[in-house]
Amino acid sequence: MTQPMPFPRVGVTPLSTALALAAAGVPVLPLRAGKVPFGNCRTCKDNACGGRSNMKTPGPCACALPCHAWAAATTNPCVLASPAWAPAWREAAAVAYHPGGAGLTVVDLDDEAAVTWARATLPATRTVPTTRGEHWIYQGTMPSSNAVRPGVDIKSLMAYARWLGPGTGPTAVLPPVVRALAVKEASPAPRAPQRLSVPLRGHGGECPHRMPAYLERGIAMAEQRISDARSAVHATVYRTFLAVLAAHGACGCLTDTHVNRLFTAAQAKGETPRHCTDAWANALARLGM
């Protein structure tokens, strides 16, 4: 069983493409060079505004700018063509859309090996060529998840995908085999950010820094490193988490507030909460924490 694809075929500029997609019911937002969304404005920095977390209606933030990555995606032409968004469209290098908001799931195949695997494993559906691989688009939504297997990401709810054209072929209904990709076996590593309240080996629980400003500078630098990433965002997030834990994790000074700041910076770059917790758990395991 297949469903019609809602993507139009027209659009000369990023804004005209965005308006055409929005008219077809596809929530869209501008992307900067490097396939990344525009950073939050000063009011929304570090989600001080309360952020946008609802998968269907961005809120409670009432910011008029394209803040909060995927959550800024909209089908409202008045917002897209507003003076507040005009600077972003002038600088935009591409258009992104929120697949989950359009009732879609994108299987992002990042290389030829992943494409070969998909052709042998997944039901045929509409495909869109990318720089290095393909997007396979299915009708239906599911939680987004990165690196479900080598070279394969799932982009649906709470994620964005780059618009690369309407693609070819009928759009198949999201099959169980794709949903199963995002189901991971339980890991013995911690699955959520936690305050390290007990002494860990190496420091006996006593902070060697003795200067709160040192920790603050470290967290601020980590946030900036994630925000400045123009490519390999997944790897940058993991390496940054690893560096923070290596420097500050073993003495118990990290709190949930610090960890949430890092997660917020990562999600502003398009990472999912699931990927953040996975990257944090992997960093903890790598360091034996």
Quick structural gist:
The chain contains nine helices and eleven strands.
Structure description:
The chain is 33% helix and 15% strand. It has helices at 14-23, 77-80, 86-91, 112-121, 176-181, 212-227, 233-248, 256-268, 273-286; strands spanning 2-3, 28-32, 36-37, 94-97, 104-109, 126-129, 134-139, 145-149, 152-155, 161-162, 171-172. Helix 6 (212-227) packs parallel to helix 8 and helix 7 (233-248) packs across helix 9. The chain is globular and about 60 Å long.
Mean pLDDT over all positions: 81
The SSE order reads EHEEHHEEHEEEEEEHHHHH
What is the percentage of strand-forming residues?
A: 5-15%
Number of helices: 9
Query: Largest beta sheet: what is the strand line-up?
Result: 6-7-5-9-8
SSE class? alpha+beta
How many strands, what sense, and barrel or not for the largest sheet? Answer: 5 strands, antiparallel
Radius of gyration over C-alpha positions, nearest whole angstrom: 20 Å
Please count the beta strands (DSSP E, at least 2 residues each).
11
Fraction of helical residues: 25-40%
What are the low-pLDDT stretches, counting only 5+ consecutive residues below 50? Answer: 54-59, 186-205
Per the principal axes of the C-alpha atoms, what is the gross shape?
Answer: globular
